[in-house]
């Protein structure tokens, strides 16, 4: 069943493969300095708390909050995370209601009061709004960063993540935001090769000028594609082979009308002896996709869930 839901798109901001985590806790919040009062773009930069991982250790999830130190709206033109060592995914949100200050344990994948600004996998890189658009944040907005950490190496790791916002003083810029797709109705048989799984989202309900995209699968993923039209494959919007260790945010420019049907297709090679279904763990699989677009009004998305028994 296809279901538009803001909660889905919140979860899609992370688009993570999951693991086990116990988070650090207890640091005091340090307000983010306000952007320069001039007319030129300015940087806002802040660090998460430091973390330490033993060889082979995974942590899900470490959360960190801070606040913008500004009495006026903050207009963000570009978001550039600097990934710390062993960062497996990184999500950046603003909160609708206050979360604890500093670093704290956050075992949930997502909470209903988190609105995503950025979601990335392994080194997904910079997200830049197009000319004439930006992400808009309220005065003194609380910012939350969530990390999934995985130390696959033989040596201990100690590091932190850094977030850099490039800002503008132009409050007239169109708002940018996110629309997410998630296929949770996956059935990938044991020893299956080139297994195709697809979802269609008819009448997406939102007019979108897309400026960047981000897809997510797990370790059995082989390729991912996004098409438009009543029949999957009618018009190719995005297609690439899947590399679990390289999950970039890809600049892409196209328009989507609210009456369009968008199709998401993923293929897998399952070399294991058991079938795979949808799940946050890397032992399972995902087929998810995000459009970053303007003009943004509210969080939305489309999910394909298994039929009710």
What do these coordinates show?
It is a single chain. By secondary structure, the protein is mostly beta strands. The protein has two domains: 9-171, Copper type II, ascorbate-dependent monooxygenase, N-terminal domain (Jelly Rolls, Sandwich), CATH 2.60.120; 177-304, Jelly Rolls (Sandwich). Helices cover 3% and strands 46% of the residues. The chain is built from one helix and 23 strands. The chain has one helix at residues 6-14, and strands at residues 2-4, 42-47, 51-53, 58-67, 74-82, 87-95, 102-105, 114-120, 127-128, 133-137, 142-150, 157-159, 162-168, 174-175, 177-183, 195-201, 208-216, 221-228, 235-241, 250-256, 262-268, 288-294, 300-304. The strands form five sheets. A six-stranded mixed beta sheet has the order 1-23-15-22-17-20. Strands 2, 5, 9, 10, 13 and 14 form a six-stranded mixed beta sheet that branches. The chain has a five-stranded antiparallel beta sheet with strand order 7-4-11-6-8, with helices on one face. A hairpin with a 6-residue loop joins strand 18 (221-228) and strand 19 (235-241). Mean pLDDT is 86; it is low at 1-30 and 34-39.
Write the layout of secondary structure elements.
Elements: E1 2-4, H1 6-14, E2 42-47, E3 51-53, E4 58-67, E5 74-82, E6 87-95, E7 102-105, E8 114-120, E9 127-128, E10 133-137, E11 142-150, E12 157-159, E13 162-168, E14 174-175, E15 177-183, E16 195-201, E17 208-216, E18 221-228, E19 235-241, E20 250-256, E21 262-268, E22 288-294, E23 300-304
Parallel strand pairs: 10-14, 15-23
Antiparallel strand pairs: 1-23, 2-13, 3-12, 4-7, 4-11, 5-9, 5-10, 5-13, 6-8, 6-11, 15-22, 16-21, 17-20, 17-22, 18-19, 18-21
């Amino acid at each position: 069943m296809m279901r538009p839901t803001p909660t889905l798109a919140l979860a899609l901001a992370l688009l993570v493969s999951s693991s086990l985590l116990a988070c650090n806790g207890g640091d005091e919040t340090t307000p983010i300095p306000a952007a320069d009062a001039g007319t030129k773009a300015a940087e806002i930069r802040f660090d998460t708390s430091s973390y330490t991982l033993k060889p082979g250790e995974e942590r899900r999830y470490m959360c960190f909050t801070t606040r913008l130190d500004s009495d006026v709206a903050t207009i963000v033109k570009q978001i550039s995370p600097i990934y710390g060592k062993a960062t497996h995914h990184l999500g950046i949100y603003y909160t609708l209601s206050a979360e604890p200050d500093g670093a704290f344990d956050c075992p949930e994948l997502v909470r209903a009061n988190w609105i995503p600004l950025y979601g990335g996998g392994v080194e997904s890189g910079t997200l830049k709004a197009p000319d004439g658009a930006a992400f808009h944040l309220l005065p003194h907005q609380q910012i939350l960063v969530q990390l999934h950490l995985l130390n696959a190496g033989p040596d201990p790791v100690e590091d932190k993540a850094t977030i850099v916002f490039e800002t503008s003083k132009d409050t007239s810029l169109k708002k940018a935001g996110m629309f997410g797709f998630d296929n949770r109705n996956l059935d990938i048989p044991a020893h299956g090769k080139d297994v195709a799984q697809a979802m269609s989202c008819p009448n997406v309900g939102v007019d979108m000028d897309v400026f960047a995209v981000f897809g997510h699968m797990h370790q059995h993923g082989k390729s991912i594609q996004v098409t438009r039209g009543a029949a999957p494959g009618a018009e190719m919007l995005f297609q690439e082979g899947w590399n679990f260790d390289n999950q970039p945010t890809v600049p892409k420019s196209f328009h989507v009308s609210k009456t369009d049907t968008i199709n998401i297709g993923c293929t897998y090679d399952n070399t294991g002896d058991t079938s795979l279904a949808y799940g946050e763990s890397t032992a399972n699989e995902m087929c998810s996709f995000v459009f970053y677009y303007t003009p943004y009004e509210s969080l939305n998305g489309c999910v394909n869930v298994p039929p009710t028994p």
